From TrEMBL:
<keyword id="KW-1133">Transmembrane helix</keyword>
<feature type="binding site">
    <location>
        <position position="949"/>
    </location>
    <ligand>
        <name>Mg(2+)</name>
    </ligand>
</feature>
<keyword id="KW-0393">Immunoglobulin domain</keyword>
<dbReference type="Pfam" id="PF07714">
    <property type="entry name" value="PK_Tyr_Ser-Thr"/>
</dbReference>
<dbReference type="GO" id="GO:0070593">
    <property type="term" value="P:dendrite self-avoidance"/>
</dbReference>
<keyword id="KW-0067">ATP-binding</keyword>
<dbReference type="InterPro" id="IPR003599">
    <property type="entry name" value="Ig_sub"/>
</dbReference>
<keyword id="KW-0325">Glycoprotein</keyword>
<keyword id="KW-0460">Magnesium</keyword>
<dbReference type="InterPro" id="IPR013098">
    <property type="entry name" value="Ig_I-set"/>
</dbReference>
<keyword id="KW-0472">Membrane</keyword>
<dbReference type="GO" id="GO:0007411">
    <property type="term" value="P:axon guidance"/>
</dbReference>
<dbReference type="GO" id="GO:0007156">
    <property type="term" value="P:homophilic cell adhesion via plasma membrane adhesion molecules"/>
</dbReference>
<dbReference type="InterPro" id="IPR013783">
    <property type="entry name" value="Ig-like_fold"/>
</dbReference>
<dbReference type="GO" id="GO:0004672">
    <property type="term" value="F:protein kinase activity"/>
</dbReference>
<keyword id="KW-0418">Kinase</keyword>
<keyword id="KW-0675">Receptor</keyword>
């Protein structure tokens, strides 16, 4: 199937599928993520997620059917609900996510999700249930204890006596939160504790129960040791006293009895002192009373020693949280600050300190309330202090109370010379920075805080303009923004700039057509109107202001009436006024447009099996290249039979029926292209059969093999002879190359032919390099070989190219879609569609330089959103640059297909594809910015950023490319100005009038690309002619009109990209950062 039909078929199908999947309503919505019922532990954080299909919708939440009122503890972030420090009293219930369209006409509510808060009380106590009094406990009777604790879900209770866990036995029966001890006896004496456990945590009892049966046969406890919390390094004391005992001993866990040492002291009265407490001495200490000859076991009563601690505090300990150490309050406002106590043992106490006099402040439950804020009563530093036995921690912030700002001294008018430094000042009475920020605005544009050109000091209100340009003139105002108050704007101050003398634009090299009437312009401007004169550098190197009679200098413009070969040379333009004098030297060359000297006959008849010569020749200066095509397809020839001769003629050695068709001969040089066509009619010859290797007679096989072997033997002898000859010739050739390099360059080969001649060697890229001043020099043989080896790694065999389809013509040749084999290792015969850019004007230095520049750009920039260079075909003429291509082609055609006025066969007047959503459009813009950022980071300049030079895939991802179809396909989007073909509507002032292309001009063009995407492929300034655009661009009066579909953040970004002053434009890195923030907001 023809590649045109294949591409059209798949593109149409893909666009149709995309259109179907876009939905039928821009306001349609469905939930993609629904809030889920959740369990959260009290005091912990919870996020309820919610997401929808339409990023333009706004989100809110309801709690138990009522609209949720946000606070610093519970608030909506994007579409999700954030709950900080969950509270069982405030946060339990049913939550629903509500999505509302931008116009408020459509509201969707999710199914409610239930939030359950798990908790456990931090105060646990062991209580006596039966009997109802300690005095009624006696041996032989039962005792029932209860662990008093509350929590959700149900709490599990574990029981301990003297630190040993009690298992469920006939003696000890546990049920729920109760412990039933049957038939108590002295063995059951001791300290009973309980531990409460659920999903919210583990809590030990603070109040324990001491069971002590009295009797004469065992030691009786009089003073029970109590739990202690001690500071590290201290010496806590446990008291313990028995009566009716013989021996009193202390044990630490299972170690003991303890004796006097550097760690412990046991007093005669039974007290125990632990010296220099640390973590190794934390745990259970047991006091044991022993009665000699007693039938009852020793009596044991234990106590717990714990180290005091206090966790540190930080900025998140105070709510609402802030990133800065300041809290800015407007005068007379009200605020509440909540201090979150850190974890500690024992529980810390929280107090507030601060204010103008750093005093203790009244607070309730850690909350500090400020009412009717005033500078005298509330400005100062505030601290939340948490203290316990072990330590104290604090977290703080400064409160700045602001009053309405007053401009004491507005900026004053200023006059400066262009190229100097200007300083504007704005003196303000207000709260200090950061409560007050002072920004500057010129006209309607807010100036950036810090750039290479302007620096705005937020704190002191100073604006510094470095290297003042004439475009900086205008009115400036300072804007004072104090938190909590309206912005105050100063009266305008006029900045006058005295313009310095400069060319506008600077003249460049000029190529004149022999015999034509032409002009060479030279314009300059300054504070005083300059006088402009032309001169010519004569053969002696001197300046001469006398010109031949056919050349006239009229107010800085050279009028040449009838260009002659003698007009070639160097010309100097000088501009001067009373202040300065400047000059520029340009090269003027004389050329001749291509002209056919031999035109092929039309039509031409040929007979099958015979040969035919189709003659074509042309002349011009420089000598034009000749190319042949068949039926408008380059390289559509059988190379085994068809050859392009050095004189430009097309020779067919054996005519076949399939050779019939239209043949075109194109002659081209730097002045343009000329083309002629002829029709080849093939007459059938009776009995003719084209020769084929398969037509051999089987009986001749032995003879064929013998001949083949003989030829092979002769070939081997020839090879050995040639090897010896080549070694000698290589030495001689190296000397010749060096001599040619010293004599000014390598001569070009024969005239260029069409892509049919795939094997004929031709002057290659590396043979010619341009100096910085535009002159051509030759390289030495060694450097030539180095560059050749650099390009060799990109070499691609043009025999693997097929089915070339002409896309159009560009700056240096035709552009094709081709099918390439051998790119996929899994299947070498599988083809891949690529874009091939041909170098037709190989003798044109500017075209050669641009071709090499594109090779360097696409081979050195490796990024997902920049097309990749696949290879270079330079084993014949023309050279081809092979670039990656996508299944949906260029973005311009895709955007046009989204318009309602786009029609195609079978569409019944309906759009081919659905309009892009804001999220999809922003994603495309971000991807393009990422690609251009990668290009700028490699220090390349694109020069033609536009939708026509961006490729799009079926997954809606885009890649920066450069088809540059300026000659026919997108000819209307280019404009010829000063002999240069420019994308006028996509370029800033400095690129058009000063020929200054830079990353900043690419940023301007990127802004135009954004405008195209949000205006469905419309070209910029559609209501203006090219001449009107040129005039308004020069006067800097171009005004952009944005469609209603363009979001405000894109409009703001577009204004920053298309600023008339290059220094005021953003960098690609800052553009990417802004767009990523936009995507985060859209996704959230």
């Amino acid at each position: 199937m023809d590649i045109v039909k294949i591409c059209y078929f798949w593109t149409s199908c893909s666009l149709l599928i995309f259109g179907i999947t876009q939905g039928s309503d821009e306001t349609s919505f469905k939930f993609l993520t629904l809030p889920q019922s959740s369990v959260v532990v009290e005091g912990h954080h919870l996020v309820l997620e919610c997401a929808g299909s339409n990023p333009a919708f706004k989100y809110s939440w309801t709690q138990n059917g009522a609209p949720l009122i946000g606070s610093y503890r519970k608030y909506v972030s994007g579409s999700d609900l954030i709950i900080r420090r969950a509270d069982r009293h405030l946060d339990e219930g049913k939550y629903a996510c509500v999505a509302t369209s931008p116009d408020g006409d459509l509201t969707e509510t999710s199914e409610p999700a239930t939030v359950t808060v798990h908790w456990i009380r931090d105060k646990v106590e062991v209580q006596l249930v039966a009997p109802d009094s300690k005095d009624k406990i006696s041996a032989g009777h039962d005792v029932t204890l209860r662990c008093h604790v509350e929590g959700i879900p149900d709490v599990k209770v574990e029981w301990y006596r003297n630190g040993e866990r009690l298992s469920k036995t006939d003696k000890h029966v546990t049920k729920g939160k109760k412990l039933h001890v049957k038939n108590v006896n002295p063995n059951d004496n001791g300290v009973y504790r309980c531990v409460a456990i659920n999903t919210a945590g583990v809590v030990n009892s603070e109040v324990n129960f001491v069971l002590r049966l009295t009797g004469t046969k065992w030691a009786e406890i009089q003073t029970v040791p109590q739990d202690k919390v001690a500071v590290k390094g201290s010496a806590p004391m446990f008291h313990c006293q028995y009566t009716n005992y013989d021996v009193l001993e202390w044990y630490f866990h299972d170690t003991g009895p303890l004796t006097n040492s550097s760690s412990f002291t046991v007093y005669k009265n039974g007290s125990l002192v632990i010296h220099n407490v640390d973590a190794s001495k934390e745990g259970q200490y047991s006091c044991v009373g022993i009665k000699a000859d007693s039938p009852e076991p020793p009596q044991t009563f234990s106590a717990q020693l714990s180290l005091a601690y206090l966790d540190p505090m930080n900025s998140s300990s105070i709510e609402p949280t802030f990133d800065s150490p300041y809290r800015i309050l407007a005068e007379h406002s009200h605020s509440v600050f909540h201090c979150i106590a850190p974890q500690g043992r024992p529980t810390p106490k929280v107090t507030w300190w601060g204010g103008p006099h750093n005093t203790s402040l009244p607070s309730h439950d850690g909350k500090l309330t400020i009412k009717d804020a005033s500078l005298s009563r509330h400005a100062g530093y505030y601290s939340c202090v948490a203290e316990n036995l072990g330590d104290s921690q604090r977290a703080g912030f400064s409160i700045i109370v602001t009053a309405p700002p007053v401009i004491m001294s507005p900026p004053q008018p200023l006059t400066v010379d262009e190229g100097t430094r200007a300083v504007l000042r704005c003196i303000v009475s207000s709260a200090p920075y950061p409560a007050t920020e002072i920004r500057w605005k010129k006209g309607e544009t807010i100036l950036p805080l810090d750039s290479a050109h302007t620096v705005s000091h937020l704190a002191n209100g100073t604006l510094v303009i470095n290297d003042v340009e004439f475009g900086d003139r205008g009115e400036y105002v300072c804007m004072v923004n104090t938190t909590g108050h309206d912005v105050v704007v100063s009266r305008p101050a006029m900045l006058q700039v005295i313009e310095k003398l400069k060319f506008s634009p600077k003249p460049g090299p000029k190529k004149l057509e022999l015999g034509s009437n032409d002009k060479i312009h030279c314009k300059a401007k300054g504070a005083e109107q300059p006088i402009i004169k032309w001169a010519r550098i004569n053969s002696y190197g001197d300046l001469s202001t006398s010109f031949p009679s056919h050349i006239e200098d009229v107010n800085g413009t050279l009028h040449i009436n009838g260009v002659t070969m003698q007009d070639k040379g160097k010309y100097v333009c000088t501009a001067s006024n009373s202040e300065a004098s400047i000059n520029v030297t340009i090269d003027v060359d004389v050329v001749i447009s291509p002209k056919f000297t031999v035109v092929p006959e039309d039509p031409i008849e040929a007979y099958e099996g015979y040969s035919i010569m189709i003659n074509c020749a042309a002349e011009g200066l420089p000598q034009p290249n000749l190319q042949w095509d068949k039926n408008a397809n380059m390289n559509d020839f059988d190379r085994s039979r068809i050859e392009v001769l050095q004189n430009g003629s097309l020779f067919i050695t054996e005519v076949h029926r399939g050779d019939e068709g239209k043949y075109g001969c194109t002659a081209g040089n730097i002045k343009g292209l000329k083309r002629v066509e002829t029709t080849l009619i093939v007459r059938t010859t009776e009995g003719f059969q084209p020769r084929s290797p398969d037509d051999l007679d089987p009986s001749s096989l032995p003879r064929t093999m013998a001949i083949t072997l003989s030829i092979a033997a002769g070939y081997l002898l020839l090879v050995f002879g040639l090897m010896a000859w080549c070694r000698a010739r290589r030495r001689k050739r190296k000397l010749i190359y060096l001599q040619e390099a010293n004599n000014g360059g390598v001569e070009a080969g024969p005239a260029a032919t069409s892509g049919v001649n795939l094997t004929q060697p031709k002057e290659t890229l590396e043979m010619r390099v341009k100096d910085a001043d535009g002159t051509e020099t030759a390289q030495s043989a060694s450097s030539n070989q180095s560059k050749r080896s650099g390009y060799d790694k990109f070499a691609f065999d043009r025999r693997n190219l097929s089915n070339m389809m002409l896309l159009g013509s560009g700056e240096f040749g035709d552009v094709y879609l081709v099918q390439a084999r051998g790119l996929k290792t899994s299947d070498p015969e599988e083809t891949t569609v690529l874009m091939a850019k041909s170098l037709v004007r190989s003798k044109d230095d500017e075209a050669l330089h641009e071709f090499k520049r594109e090779i360097d750009l696409f081979s050195k920039v490796d990024h997902a959103h920049v097309v990749k260079m696949i290879g270079i075909c330079r084993d014949g003429d023309p050279h081809y640059l092979l670039l990656e291509y996508t299944d949906w082609g260029d973005l311009k055609q895709f955007l046009l297909a989204t318009r309602k006025d786009f029609k195609d066969k079978g569409s019944q007047g309906k759009p081919k594809v659905r309009s892009l959503s804001s999220g999809q459009a922003v994603t495309m813009v971000l991807q393009a910015a990422l690609g251009l950022e990668a290009i700028s980071e490699k220090r390349f300049i694109h020069k033609d950023v536009a939708a026509r030079n961006v490729l799009i895939s079926s997954d809606l991802s885009v890649k920066i490319s450069l088809s540059g179809l300026s000659q026919n396909t997108y000819q209307k989007e280019y404009y010829k100005y000063r002999n240069a073909i420019l994308p006028l509507r996509w370029l800033p002032y400095e690129a058009v009038f000063d020929d200054e292309f830079s990353t900043k001009s690419d940023v301007y063009s990127f802004g135009c690309l954004m405008w195209e995407i949000f205006n469905k492929g419309e070209w910029p300034f559609p209501d203006l002619t090219d001449e009107q655009v040129l005039s308004q661009l020069e006067s800097k009066k171009l005004s952009w009109k944005h469609s209603s579909r363009t979001p405000e953040y894109i409009v703001a970004l577009h204004e920053q990209c298309t600023h008339s002053h290059p220094h005021q434009r953003l960098t690609f890195s800052s553009i990417v950062t802004q767009l990523r923030d936009v995507m985060v907001n859209l996704n959230s």
